[in-house]
């Protein structure tokens, strides 16, 4: 199986996606890993995550406090620090880089900090493998729709992360570097669902930017599925993009409000925000093939091109959340399927869904 006996490093593993990824890896659905290492800066989040695993079973053993003897190992460190990265990467077969500064306004006010985490961090991973000859099998970069035709600092730095990892395949041919790109994950930290829940529970108003603004609806488990699929079937330099439905922000709000008498308030589009999420640009669509439920952007660097993986492009234009928008009834049904209606879920401080 894909992860059987593997040592897996997850940078930013205490974040929304990182926590669910770790939980599913430890469940053994893709084989029992030898070790899962979580590298992050926040000791409080690590301690909270450790305690949560001390109270439940993962695979056949219970995670215990003896950190370095456990299958789940926590390390305080920063992807910005080359020594920290070296110390963690040397013990890994697979690296998933989920560490990021991802809030658009934060990155606009502090663009250099965005560069340090979102660009220097990935560069440190590449450098650690290249300079030390670490036998890492695969590196996965977690990217975002904002990296496609970027209009803000967060998207620009994430776009550079993609380029850093794609180009690394030429520098380090023995390691497979790939990326996944997806939009906002429903109910993750900083997403609109928890905000709407809070506003509805407080009696309103529910604030939406522009009624016709559209967003892809992607569950956190679907995001993890994308990483698993890319690791299992992806080739060097490819970027995987899940094919998922989209809805207007207005319909998301209406679906969550239901028959409650809660006011809707239009606030206007925010700086650096797009009307529609774009996952594949017009320039990229000529290099995209479809594999199952994913669009895959093939590497554009000629050294990485492989005719065996090419074929007829699956897209003739950009892939946008405006392409196929669900109705209000369809949006409501999907949110019910994901158990995201008000009162259905409780969100942890890290944004993970607690069922």
Detailed description of the structure:
It is a single chain. With 355 residues, this protein is α/β, with parallel strands linked by helices. The chain has a domain at 7-184 and 219-243 and 278-320: NAD(P)-binding Rossmann-like Domain (Rossmann fold), CATH 3.40.50. It has helices spanning 16-26, 43-54, 82-89, 104-109, 111-132, 153-171, 192-201, 220-233, 249-257, 328-337; strands spanning 7-11, 35-40, 57-58, 61-62, 72-76, 94-97, 138-144, 176-182, 206-208, 214-216, 239-242, 246-248, 264-266, 278-280, 288-291, 294-297, 319-320, 346-347, 353-354. The strands form 6 sheets. The chain has a 9-stranded mixed β-sheet with strand order 5-2-1-6-7-8-11-16-15, sandwiched between helices. Strands 3-4 form a two-stranded antiparallel sheet. A hairpin with a 5-residue loop joins strand 18 (346-347) and strand 19. It is globular. The model is unreliable at 59-64 and 346-355 (pLDDT under 50).
> Which architecture of the domain at 7-184 and 219-243 and 278-320 would the CATH scheme give at its second level?
3-Layer(aba) Sandwich
Mean pLDDT over all positions: 91
Distance between the termini: 28 Å
Low-pLDDT residue intervals, each spanning 5 or more residues: 59-64, 346-355
Helix content: 25-40%
* Biggest beta sheet attributes: 9 strands, mixed
Major sheet strand order: 5-2-1-6-7-8-11-16-15
Q: What is the chains' assembly state? A: single chain
Query: Can you identify the CATH class of the domain at 7-184 and 219-243 and 278-320?
Result: Alpha Beta
Give the overall silhouette: globular
Topology as a string of helices (H) and strands (E): EHEHEEEHEHHEHEHEEHEEHEEEEEHEE
CATH superfamily of the domain at 7-184 and 219-243 and 278-320: NAD(P)-binding Rossmann-like Domain
CATH topology of the domain at 7-184 and 219-243 and 278-320: Rossmann fold
Structural class: alpha/beta
Number of helices: 10
Q: How much beta, percentage-wise?
A: 15-25%
